[in-house]
Amino acid sequence: MPLSNFKILLTLHENSTTKVYRAIRKSYHKKVIIKELKYAARTAHMMSTFINEQKILDKLKHKNIIHLIDVLYTPTEYLHIFEDIEADSLFDLVSIHPFSLKEALKISLDLAKVLQLLHNNQILHSDINPKNIIYNPNTSQLQLIDFGNALHYANKTLLEKPNDTTSANLFYISPEQTGLTTYTIDERSDLYSFGMTLYHLFLGHSPFEAIDRYELFHKQIALRPKPLHERRSNFPPVLSYIISKLIEKNPFDRYQNDESLIHDLQSCLAGLSPLDTIEAFPIARYDHPPIEIGEHLYGRETELKQLKKILSEALLLDPVRLFISG
After folding, report:
1. pLDDT tens, residue by residue, 42-89
2. In angstroms, rounded to a whole number, what is the distance separating the alpha carbons of residues 72 and 81?
3. Are 143 and 65 in contact (CB under 8 A)?
4. By CB count within 10 A, which of 46, 142, 264, 267 is most buried?
5. d(Cα 136, Cα 150) in Å, to the nearest integer?
6. Nearest-5° angle of CA 250, CA 255, CA 261?
7. CB–CB of 76/39 below 8 Å?
């Protein structure tokens, strides 16, 4: 049995579907992290999330992305084996390890660069939140984890219908992920969740409180959190404006690309004074929306009708050679 090959040291997390351990692999005497899919939770959906995580992580190799070492399975066990950097989640750390502004900025910048890597590979994480970011304060090593909900969007039409049954953390999901808006889910959805995560990192808790998912959905869609410099004394306004822009409700009002965000975070880090002040500068100066080619032709009805006629004839008769100019 695969699990018997490990000495379990600690259960890090458990829910109705998965269990996460810190363990030692007996054959190598090396610490690892084990994510186990519970036997009773082996539904088609949960199996697909484990398989999806494996496929995504096979494509992504980076020091700030969790490293999948092995996949072990039997008729009763399904395990993902990860490297262990001896880290804790940002969610847990913010309450026990107060971050300096400089350290939190470095974490923010590292995360922004990881998102850039994902988006350049046409991958949305879809569940950015403080529990899915682990950090070792002793080594300053950071990793993004939990890619079960990640999406590969080579075909963007797959993302035009939001999923209202999302299993992402509802405190950090974008308005478009609720399924209650008409916005397309794209990179800017990850940037919203990233902004909500930074809000938590710098404030110490989530921007919103709610008693149920419906109240959370309403707040994610309609309620704008107060700017951070109004909630935390002496917080640099320019950094507050960056985070507020990330969590705009309309995707077109957010940062439109990772590069512009990274530039602004780098400027904040470079301009941070010993007194934790940052001189104001215009944000999003290098922002530009991605260039997308529409899928519909306009003003070419006559030509399209002719093409369809030729195609029908070619299917029934002999193939034809067709030249199109313009």
Report:
1. 999 999 999 999 999 999 999 999 999 999 999 899 999 999 999 999
2. 8
3. yes
4. 264
5. 24
6. 155
7. yes
How much is the CA Rg of the chain, to the nearest whole Å?
Answer: 23
Count of H helices and E strands in the chain? 8, 10
DSSP element (H, E) containing 13: strand 6-14
Cα angle 178, 180, 185; round to 5: 60
String of b and e for 152-185 (b: at least 16 CB within 10 Å)?
A: ebeeeeebeebbeebebbbbbbbbbbbeebebeb
Pairwise CA distance, residues 190 & 173, whole Å? 8
Dihedral (CA of 198, 199, 204, 210) sign = negative
Q: What is the pLDDT of residue 242?
A: 98
pLDDT given for residue 235 in this prediction: 97
Q: What angle do CA 173, 179, 184 make, to 5 degrees?
A: 85
Q: What is the pLDDT of residue 260?
A: 97
Extract long-range pairs of 184-187: CB within 8 Å, 24+ residues apart. Answer: 184/156, 184/159, 184/160, 184/251, 185/124, 185/126, 185/151, 185/159, 185/160, 186/124, 186/153, 186/156, 186/159, 186/251, 187/115, 187/119, 187/124, 187/257, 187/258, 187/290
Strand, coil or helix: what is 48?
helix
